[in-house]
Specification:
The complex is a heterodimer of chains A (about 180) and B (about 300).
Chain A (H helix, E strand, L loop, with lengths): L1 H12 L20 E3 L9 H5 L5 E5 L3 E6 L9 H5 L5 E3 L15 E6 L15 H7 L5 H8 L2 H18 L10
Antiparallel strand pairs in A: 1-4, 2-3, 3-5
Chain B lengths: L2 H9 L4 H22 L9 H10 L8 H24 L12 H22 L3 H32 L4 H6 L4 H17 L11 H4 L9 H26 L7 H25 L5 H24 L1 H7 L1
Helix pairs in contact in B: 1-4, 2-10, 2-11, 3-10, 4-5, 4-10, 5-6, 6-8, 6-12, 8-10, 8-12, 10-11, 12-13
Classes of the chains: A alpha+beta (about 180), B mainly alpha (about 300).
Chain lengths: ~180, ~300
């Protein structure tokens, strides 16, 4: 007769089902919607490259970069978060919200390009985190070089080569590659 | 039984107008109570009605003429049999019935089960056929004690008229016979622990597996009417008094029917499905034992007098 006492207990306790929009607490490391920290993003587009469902798109413009995300398409696989070299992406520990129209959840963030200190042209940001991965030690010179646009950076490199040829001086090695 | 009263019983109370909403209410009560006992919320009270409307609006699967005739005809026959069985129940004190209405009621109560067996084979689905076979075997097992109990009641009241049986003085025969009929209710309604003929985890829904749309809606309705008719039968035969007023009889009939529904639901929720062999053994041993006691007491009334 144990089963009937269990049934009676259930009847007295009421339903354990949570009514929408209530949710059970999500476990640690739950794969929820992807969130971006624009101040960390370097607009490399790796997240869009690995996204199997095409939920993440990165579109480059002249003076900014557009990071678009549609949770309606997302499979919450977490590949974009894993591949991001600067840790700009993370997954929220909540379920994707319900919606009537798929587009209602779409998100779009703009990552503004900083201006090149040399020529004033907008250039994709290079953060210290990515420089730290490329170089053993991030010196002030590397930081300055990183802020330059591609063209100015090439010129600076050319100038460095010319100085070696003309003066015969070999500047101390900065990088490990 | 005059014609006006017969038509009123068939179409108003306890027939169509009363039985169909009550059938939906009973189906809801069963689902809701089961859900609550399992810690779920369960459907709102209008859900069976919405299910019915939605199923009725669905497109039918195209079949050959002969097949579609069977597929549509059988659930309709089951619904009609349910309504006719309800119309025969001696609910109010002024219902007279007619000689032999007991036999007709027993026949009508068996029609939905028969239709279910035929539908299972007509649907040409392997699940339907397995369900139909199980239903047919169960029908043989539970009808033996069920019919014996009915015969015991009839022989003790010396009448085949339902109202005579219902109004007969209470005694051992009535007690054992009604208990046997109660024992047969779960299997007749295909409820746990005797739900082997529509075992949803094994053979989907047995003979109704291939049915959809309006045909399935009719099966659902037939099932609800079966609930009403069988619980009504137990209430009508179990209580040998009538209040004398229409409203009093109505309240008693409805109230006791709902109590039976609740008890059957508790039994169905608290038990697991038995095998066909176990179910057959149970009915032939316990059901038949009780029915035989009722029959012996009914045929030899001296025994009961001697015991007292």
């Amino acid at each position: 007769m144990n089963i009937f006492s269990i049934l009676l207990k259930n009847l007295r306790m009421g339903p354990i089902t949570l009514r929408f929009p209530e949710e059970v607490p999500h476990p640690e490391g739950f794969h929820g919607p992807v969130k971006i920290q624009t101040e960390k993003c370097i607009c490399c587009g790796m997240c869009a490259y690995v996204c199997v469902s095409g939920a993440v798109r990165v579109v480059e413009h002249e003076n900014n970069c557009e990071w678009a995300y549609s949770p309606g398409r997302c499979t919450f696989c977490g590949q974009c978060v894993a591949i991001c070299p600067v840790g700009a992406l993370c997954m929220e520990d909540r379920s994707a919200p319900s919606y009537f129209r798929t587009e209602a959840l779409n998100e779009m963030h703009r990552v503004p390009y900083p201006l090149c200190p040399s020529c004033g042209h907008p250039t994709p940001p290079v953060r210290e985190a990515i420089l730290a991965q490329a170089f053993k030690e991030v010196t002030p010179e590397i930081l300055v070089r990183g802020r330059l646009c591609q063209r100015c950076r090439q010129r600076a490199s050319q100038r460095g080569l010319v100085s070696i040829q003309v003066k015969g001086e070999i500047p101390p090695r900065q990088s490990d590659n | 039984m005059n014609w006006e009263k017969a038509i009123l019983s068939l179409f108003v109370f306890p027939g169509l107008l009363y039985a169909v909403p009550m059938a939906w209410l009973v189906l809801w009560l069963e689902r809701k109570l089961r859900a609550r006992m399992q810690g779920r919320i369960g459907p709102p009270f209008y859900q069976p009605f919405f299910d019915f409307v939605k199923l009725m609006a669905k497109q039918q699967v195209h079949r050959s003429n002969f097949d579609s005739l069977f597929m549509m005809g059988l659930p309709l026959v089951a619904v009609a049999a349910g309504l006719l069985a309800l119309a025969l129940l001696p609910i109010s004190s002024d219902s007279k019935g007619f000689a032999g209405d007991l036999v007709l009621l027993v026949a009508f109560l068996e029609v939905p089960s028969l239709c279910s067996v035929l539908a299972g084979f007509a649907s040409r689905s392997i699940f339907g056929q397995v369900g139909a076979t199980r239903e047919a075997i169960l029908s043989v097992t539970y009808n033996l004690p069920f019919l014996t109990a009915v015969v015991a009641l009839a022989s003790s009241a010396h009448s085949l008229r339902l109202v005579d049986i219902a109004m007969a003085p209470a005694g051992g025969v009535r007690f054992f016979a009604v208990l046997t009929i109660c024992l047969c209710l779960p299997v007749k309604l295909r409820l746990n622990p005797f739900s082997v003929s529509n075992a949803e985890q094994e053979i989907y829904s047995g003979s109704e597996t291939e049915f959809s749309g309006p045909q399935l809606a009719m099966w659902e309705l037939a099932h609800g009417l079966e609930w009403m008719a069988l619980t009504g039968l137990v209430v009508c035969l179990g209580l040998n008094f009538r209040t004398g007023t229409w409203i009093g009889d109505f309240v008693i009939y409805t109230g006791f029917s709902l109590v039976l529904v609740i008890l059957l639901t508790i039994l169905a929720t608290g038990t697991a499905r038995l095998k066909l062999k176990q179910a057959a053994r149970f009915y032939w041993r316990w059901g038949m034992g009780l029915a035989l006691v009722a029959l012996i007491l009914g045929v030899f009334p001296g025994i009961e007098r001697f015991i007292r």
